[in-house]
Amino acid sequence: MCGIVGYIGNKQAYPILINGLKRLEYRGYDSAGVAIYSDDLYIYKRKGKVQELIDYAKGKNIKGTIGIGHTRWATHGKPDNVNAHPHVSGNGRLTLIHNGIIENYALLKEALKKEGHVFESETDTEVLVHFIEEIQKRDNLKLEEAVRIALSKVVGAYAIVVMDKQDPDKLVAARKASPLVIGIGEDEFFVASDPTPIAEYTQKVVFLNDEEIAMVNRNGDLQIKTIEDEIQTPFIQEVDLKIEELEKGDYEHFMLKEIYEQPQTVADCMRGRINSKEGWIKVGGVDTTRDRIFNAKRFIIAACGTSWHAGLIGEYLFEELARISVEVEYASELRYRNPIINSDDVVIALSQSGETADTLAALELAKEKGALCYGIVNNVGSSIARLTHAGSYIHAGPEIGVASTKAFTGQVTLLSMMAIHLGYERGTIPRSYYLQLLEELENIPNKIESLLKSTKKQIEFIAGEIKDADNALYLGRGYNFPIALEGALKLKEISYIHAEGYPAAEMKHGPIALIDENMPVICIATNKSAYEKIVSNIQEVKARKGMVIAIVKEGDTVISKIADYTIEIPDTDEPLTPLLSVVPLQLLSYHIALMRGCNVDQPRNLAKSVTVE
Ligand code: G6P
Known about the structure:
The chain has 613 residues and is an alpha/beta fold.
């Protein structure tokens, strides 16, 4: 949460910072601000989106070749102009941007007040910059030394960039539990929360590790040291990010683009990993940790949000196909309840961003307890990818819409491949079924493509019918139960309609009391097993005058007679159903949100990357 960006070099900093902030806006959009140094320090900050800042800074002095910028997701202090970053030290010398939370800020603030510091904002960040100033002043230290000492006394999470107007040839950046990347150009450096603001200038990056401090100088020097003052050798990597992947192209919204990219992203996730004709499946991370994965007593899947829903599908897949016992945990719960995790467990962290604070912390705990830690991650080089013993990227490309879509299908594709692979190798599925599943998995991209075309008009129509509802219920059984949860989450996130997902049979234990003619009930009913049961559930809804929208498989003649609306999707093997059944629900939420005039890509109060607990 919060996006930070910095630049030092020969170019004008302002346009680079503004472009960077636009790319990072998915991380928070409560306020935006920049600080630029030329003949003096110029700071502009505004409540609201980056565009507000651009409008505000128009006509003002924005010249300078060094600067820092921030887009905020508010934690301490309401979103307003005063709480917006950058924050300035009491003597006006230092400016700082921050992503994270300084947990001991109240104690530090009290101590600093006693020293005569006066604070303007309610933020923990302003306390940090005053604290660095105090340390710098006291011993007349260089900026990097003052930052290092200050951070060694700070409790919490941070990614920061600091600028000193008495030394405008240098930026100092540091991280702990919030991401930070340094971009290395020709005589210039970039600093950012992720590589997206950097990629159009250079593909050469260094991902900072926890408790590392980087100093980037105008003379081309990059130095990294730890908080304990040990010099580190920068590990320079090439990122492969294409600008088109970061733009909306012809689509009105990133979310729509990302929904429509799914035939491609699911294919990309499988590329080089399966071949049904030759009958093989290779998942790199699984092969390198083969013994521990194959002999695992239990898998524990830790995740948050949409990734947690993908994890639930993983549970159904691994248990059915590979007969491995699985527990799926909210990472935030797992980390705080002294869980039983043993060295013969495999802990799988599922995360689009690879930066979710709770998932990272759960992994650290699992590592301490000796489990094998496996990451299924989208963002290359992210913290989770680096913390795990092994793992697999889903290769969905940058996902920018706050509501996750293509990352979800990427995660489910990867989990499906792992489960099929393990099932076959462990002898829990016969070769004929293994080959059938491989072939069917290879057909999924085409099936998504065809359902995107065939259901478009109908979904728009249904969206119009239910857009004014206050509540909605999503029901599914088996593999479609997590899809019911995900469908409801998508609707809540972007249209602000209250929605709940339920196992269809559980409806009778509560939600049925809510059903009347005003309640749309979305039934995901593509199942082959327990088909009659879900038909009965739909009858129960209809008997109470609920409006039923059913997702069914092609050629279904039974449910279409009972439901008010049916959306047909191609048939597939049951374990692979979620890869298809989720897509109409993504589109339905998208169209409803659009018709309600909501900001689809940047829904209120949410952020894409949740780097605070
Ligand atoms: C936030 C995002 C969700 C995402 C969740 C977990 O809530 O808005 O889209 O599913 O975080 O994020 P992760 O990056 O770990 O998958």
